Amino acid sequence: MTTTGPVTTDLVTTDLVADYLDAWNAGDPAERRARLERLCAPGVRYVDPLADVTGVEALDALISGVQEQFAGLRFTPVGAVDAHHDVCRFRWGLGPEGAEPVVIGFDVAVLDADGRITAVHGFLDRVPEGA
């Protein structure tokens, strides 16, 4: 059997996902961009039912737009991160801090050999009407 990419551990991917969600929450554009450049490969692809972007710059712009649309809301992990080989999956919520999330999603991230995110495949489990 041949494997590609790092063999992930729960601790590594839990920290990675926490950092990734922190990037989505970062209000300072320079901080957000620095986090994304550290966490993601330059050609990272993010795709979900509402977006399909490639590159750190495009992902940064997408996050900025989401922050404008959902001002004051924060991304938080929902449940544990599950990982094997170069893939991890995790659920997240978007809502007021300490309250029930208004949006819930499920992402699958693919990592390169250096542990950087090369792709995120997102699914939206709960989205409010009009969002």
Automatic annotation (TrEMBL):
What is this protein's name? Answer: Nuclear transport factor 2 family protein
For the SnoaL-like domain, which residue ranges apply? 17-119
- Extract the coiled-coil ranges from the record: none
InterPro entries associated with the record: NTF2-like_dom_sf (IPR032710), SnoaL-like (IPR037401)
